[in-house]
From TrEMBL:
Name by which UniProt lists this protein: Oxidoreductase
Lineage: Bacteria, Bacillati, Chloroflexota, Chloroflexia, Chloroflexales
Gene Ontology molecular function terms on file: nucleotide binding; oxidoreductase activity
Residue ranges of domain GFO/IDH/MocA-like oxidoreductase in the record: 129-230
Natural source organism: Kouleothrix aurantiaca
InterPro entries: Gfo/Idh/MocA-like_OxRdtase_N, Gfo/Idh/MocA_domain, GFO_IDH_MocA-like_dom, NAD(P)-bd_dom_sf
Length: 235
């Protein structure tokens, strides 16, 4: 599969390195709204072509799939445009900022016969796959309580994760992992959600704790923070 990358950020760089290490995938193009940044990124990561607009990358006939590593508020727009260009989509988490957005993205992918995948890499970890098998076999019985927590200390106050206009915040950045793994363990979507948050001056949730209730009776306790110690835990 020949990939294009829409982003020049830190995670996009890791993704480019991973593609180079793959025997089946290759990265052939990168795009930024700043042509200079796109060119520098392509040069640094051994990518043949760079574009100064996202539209130009989508028009590249050699690109078969696109990794979208843009801020949360831009995921839906560019996933839909990528689908309309007939290219498969790996969109950074969280996939969307609302249920309505997610449905529209799904509909666009289905209408254009392309894959739309949310970039939760942990889902493909051998341990996660084994956990899924054990849960499906009910090897530990009925799931009653799920606890998941993810956090780190964000010292850069200008970081996009703290930008309300771009739909940042702890829940969207790392709490989405907690919600996702809880759904994996429960095997279904929650029927009720309760949460409380501490708010950053920019208007995003800096720390959040919540409870998810599932139709079968299971409960999940989740917490996430951008202003605490670095940790990733699930029980």
């Amino acid at each position: 599969m020949r990939w294009g990358i829409i982003s020049t950020g830190h995670i996009a760089a890791k993704f480019a390195d991973a593609l180079h290490a793959s025997e089946s995938e290759q990265v052939v193009a990168a795009a930024s709204r700043d042509a200079g940044r796109a060119a520098d990124f392509a040069s640094n990561y051994g990518i043949a072509r760079s574009y100064g607009s996202y539209e130009a990358l989508l028009a590249d006939p050699e690109v078969e799939a696109v990794y979208i590593g843009l801020p949360n508020s831009m995921h839906a727009e560019w996933s839909i445009k990528t689908a309309q260009a007939g290219k498969h989509i790996l969109c950074e988490k969280p996939l969307a900022v609302s249920r309505a957005e997610a449905i529209t993205m799904y509909d666009a992918a289905r209408a254009n016969n392309v894959w739309l995948v949310e970039a939760f890499m942990y889902r493909f970890n051998p341990r996660t796959l084994k956990l899924g098998e054990l849960l499906a076999q009910r090897a530990i019985g009925d799931v009653r309580i799920i606890r998941a927590s993810f956090g780190f200390f964000l010292s850069d106050m200008s970081n996009v994760r703290l930008n309300a206009e771009l739909v940042g915040g702890a829940l969207m950045d790392v709490g989405c992992y907690c919600v996702n793994v809880a759904r994996l363990a429960a095997g279904q979507a929650p029927s009720r959600a309760l949460a409380a948050a501490q708010w950053a001056g920019s208007g995003v949730d800096e720390t959040l704790a919540g409870t998810l209730e599932y139709p079968g009776g299971a409960l999940a306790q989740i917490s996430c923070t951008l202003s605490g110690s670095s940790h990733q835990q699930v029980q």
